[in-house]
Design brief:
By secondary structure, the chain is α+β, with helices and mostly antiparallel strands. The protein is built from ten helices and 14 strands. Helices cover about 35% and strands about 15% of the residues. The strands form three sheets. It has a five-stranded antiparallel sheet with strand order 1-2-3-4-5, covered by helices on one side. It has a five-stranded mixed sheet with strand order 10-12-11-13-14, with helices on both faces. The radius of gyration is 22 Å and the shape is globular. About 5% of the residues have low confidence.
């Protein structure tokens, strides 16, 4: 179970709730009738003082002052995750370096390919990904099934088309989902679904399966680049995969931020938008599902279609 130190908790407590809301939830803050006081657009019984940051959620009879308490009690973010998010935003907290020198990068090694992609195809179909989207990725040699464990292997390539990155995802539903990167992966070369014709738009996702899900939801339209970042950080740093992609594609004018609709994804979207908004048209387009991602939307869509077909068959 992940833990946080006392120093991290102290660092997280340094950010006030009003500072957090003004920086990351400006659209939610609404002036109330009382002088110097605000409320949330989503919860009108939540009041916060613009100077002292003291807040009170009357309908729940809870209150506080810090961003940490706000995230935990109002947005429902787990304690450890809330501390980690705020520590990444705190310039006063410097993580302890447990190694004097960074380890040498291991040699990049891809899993062997299975004779077919049948199991991966069945798994992705069960997740709501369409067959045309699956075949599109397989045909472009950015997706295959591993021989040993039959994992999904999502590839990222350099400008010469040589694989430099691989995200592995298990196909079994029982137990904790298996997710990891192949040893030696270079994160700047993210999994990217190319369009049929070169374009000027890139949609950015946290995971490869989210990119495939959104393509499915768009009717399998290969009309833009769909790039996976391989996870996000709320530190405010430029994502390596997006940085390298934009370096390779100077023709890009529009960035669609399609990160997860949770606390970490929303915070990362704000940071990325601030980094690129002066040079690009940046659109924030999270999935329309609370605390979820595009893969969740595709799965829900599949469940709804299946239920509709069964209902029609019983008539």
């Amino acid at each position: 179970m992940p833990r946080v130190s006392k120093e991290q908790v102290n660092a997280a407590n340094r950010m006030t709730a009003i500072e957090f809301l003004r920086r990351y939830r400006p659209g939610s803050l609404v002036k109330s009738s009382a002088r110097g006081e605000y409320q949330l657009a989503e919860h009108d019984s939540f009041k916060i003082n613009g100077e002292s940051s003291v807040w009170h959620w009357k309908s729940r009879d809870i209150g506080g002052k810090s961003a940490l308490k706000y995230l935990i009690y109002v947005e429902g973010v787990p304690f450890v995750e809330a501390v980690q998010l705020l520590c990444e935003e705190s310039p006063m907290y410097i993580p302890v370096q447990h190694e004097a020198v960074e380890r040498e990068r291991p040699q990049f090694k891809l899993p062997r390919k299975a004779p077919t992609n049948d199991r991966v195809t069945r798994y992705l179909l069960g997740r709501g990904i369409s067959l045309p989207t699956i075949r599109y990725c397989i045909a472009r040699k950015i997706l295959y099934e591993s021989a040993e464990y039959h994992n999904c292997v999502f590839l990222g390539k350099d400008p010469q088309g040589v694989p430099k990155y691989a995200a592995l995802r298990g196909i079994y539903d029982y137990g904790k989902p298996f997710k990891r990167e192949a040893p030696g992966s270079q994160k700047q070369y993210g999994f990217c679904i190319p369009p049929m014709q070169p374009g000027t738009t890139v949609a950015v996702f946290e995971a490869a399966i989210d990119a495939m899900a959104e393509m499915t939801l768009c009717g399998d339209a290969a009309d833009k680049y769909r790039l996976s970042l391989g996870g996000v950080s709320s530190s405010g740093k430029e994502p390596l995969a997006l940085q390298e992609f934009l370096r390779q594609h100077p023709e890009i004018t529009t960035i669609e931020l399609r990160l997860d609709n949770d606390a970490k994804g929303r915070m990362a979207s704000v940071n990325i938008r601030n980094l690129y908004r002066e040079k690009y048209q940046v659109c924030d387009l999270p999935p329309n599902i609370e605390n979820g991602d595009y893969a969740d939307m595709a799965k829900n869509n599949l469940v709804a279609r299946t239920a509709a077909h069964r209902a029609a068959a019983c008539r």
